[in-house]
Design brief:
Layout lengths: L10 H18 L5 E6 L2 E3 L2 E3 L1 H10 L3 E9 L7 H10 L7 E8 L2
Helix pairs in contact: 1-2
Length: 106
């Protein structure tokens, strides 16, 4: 599905698509309306892709950031503790949280 921004091939095209999402949300929300965005940072190889920071900045172009909350990811597999342990032994950080951004249309 072309509308699935998670399938973007590069971080740049993903961020452009998300800017379009914010613009459209701003267009359809009434003044005083709220927008909630849940995002998690990702890693490609050893490189951190700080999506939370990027999407906060992009969102602030259109909305007022009211707050954010941290959500601990549910461990979806029995292998998760082993994978986290192995990654930490190698000196890698493991992201196990998502951030929920709370925006308001001014």
């Amino acid at each position: 599905d072309k509308r699935d921004v998670s399938l973007c091939e590069t971080i740049e095209t993903y961020l452009e698509a998300m800017d379009g999402f914010y613009r459209e949300a701003y267009r359809v929300l009434e003044t005083g309306g709220h927008l909630f965005v849940m995002i998690g940072d990702i890693r490609k190889g050893r490189k951190l892709m700080p999506l939370t920071a990027h999407l906060t900045l992009i969102g602030e172009r259109h909305f007022t950031l009211m707050d954010r909350a941290i959500k601990i990811r549910k461990r979806s597999s029995r292998l998760m503790p082993m994978l986290i342990s192995n990654a930490r032994k190698r000196g890698h950080l493991v992201d196990i949280v998502d951030t929920v951004l709370f925006f308001k249309k001014g």
